[in-house]
Automatic annotation (TrEMBL):
Gene encoding the protein: mutM
Residues that, per the record, bind DNA: H91, R110, R151
Protein known as: Formamidopyrimidine-DNA glycosylase
A biological process term (GO) from this entry: base-excision repair
Record's keyword annotation contains rRNA-binding: no
Entry keyword set: DNA damage, DNA repair, DNA-binding, Glycosidase, Hydrolase, Lyase, Metal-binding, Multifunctional enzyme, Zinc, Zinc-finger
């Protein structure tokens, strides 16, 4: 599933192609992919210009004139592609034609992703942004410690909770916990101030390094120009079960935490 670095890579590669462009036509091939419904989505976008691009957590946000917004949540296999002709691929659920002859294509093999038209900021806040915590890259260390350290349960579950911290998923939770030397099973309330500060720094460093390398293309992720990321080659523990930990050499183990495959080093990440 694309996480914060992957969505930010899409935003950065998408922005130069769409900023200032007017939407001249909208074609919906899979009605369930758009909200509130296909007609409202197409009518809302039609004739508007794209004035800004933004991201919050895993949510891609396109600002439109007249105070409107379009959001894209890629979920598991969503892709945003900008091209002057349709990609030679199936599962193209939406096409948005721009006034320079290029089009924005939305492709999604698993059909879990969603595009949403919001007529104003209130609709954006009450809809796609509802129940989202602060963005994982924008949260300062003190606020991070307050939010995460007050939660009960397992530490990895807290990092994955988008109501607490927006943008972190399975890959970057595992990678950040390993860098911080913390167990995914630790109780956040038992962590020291140093532990929480170390985790904040590890999370931020991991996300920024992933951004520099174009994200992780574990399954089918690509940016808006069809380029895969390379950060998967730098993963320390994620999907490296049985391989040596890059710090101590002990085999990486895999357990299931809240239904999610979780990878960690039992020596470097002893339970607190």
């Amino acid at each position: 599933m694309p996480e914060l670095p992957e969505v930010e890579c899409v935003r950065r590669t998408l922005e130069p192609a769409v900023l200032g462009r007017a939407i001249v036509a909208v074609q919906i091939n899979y009605a369930k992919a758009v909200l509130p419904d296909a007609r409202a989505f197409a009518d809302g976008l039609g004739g508007k210009s794209i004035t800004a691009t933004a991201r919050h957590g895993k949510l891609l946000i396109l600002g439109l004139d007249q105070g409107a917004f379009m959001t894209i949540h890629l979920r598991m296999t969503g892709q945003v592609i900008v091209a002057d002709q349709a990609p030679q691929a199936d599962h193209i659920h939406a096409r948005i034609d721009l006034d320079d002859g290029q089009s924005l294509f939305y492709r999604d093999m698993r059909k879990f992703g969603r595009l949403n038209y919001c007529p104003d900021a209130q609709a954006l806040q009450n809809g796609p942004l509802a129940n989202m915590g602060p963005d994982a890259l924008e949260l300062e260390a003190e606020a991070f410690a307050t939010l995460v350290g007050a939660r009960g349960g397992k530490l990895k579950n807290v990092l994955l909770d988008q109501r607490v911290l927006a943008g972190v998923g399975n890959i970057y939770a595992d990678e950040s916990l390993h860098r911080a030397g913390l167990s995914p099973l630790a109780d956040p309330r038992a962590l020291s101030a140093d532990d929480l500060d170390r985790l904040h720094r590890a999370l931020r460093q991991t996300l920024l390094e992933a951004l520099e390398q174009g994200g992780s293309s574990v399954r089918n992720f690509m940016d808006a120009h069809g380029r895969a990321g390379t950060f998967q080659h730098s993963h320390r523990v994620y999907r490296r079960t049985g391989q040596p930990c890059p710090v101590c050499g002990q085999p990486v183990e895999r357990i299931v935490v809240a239904g999610r495959g979780t990878h960690f080093c039992p020596a470097c990440q002893e339970k607190c």
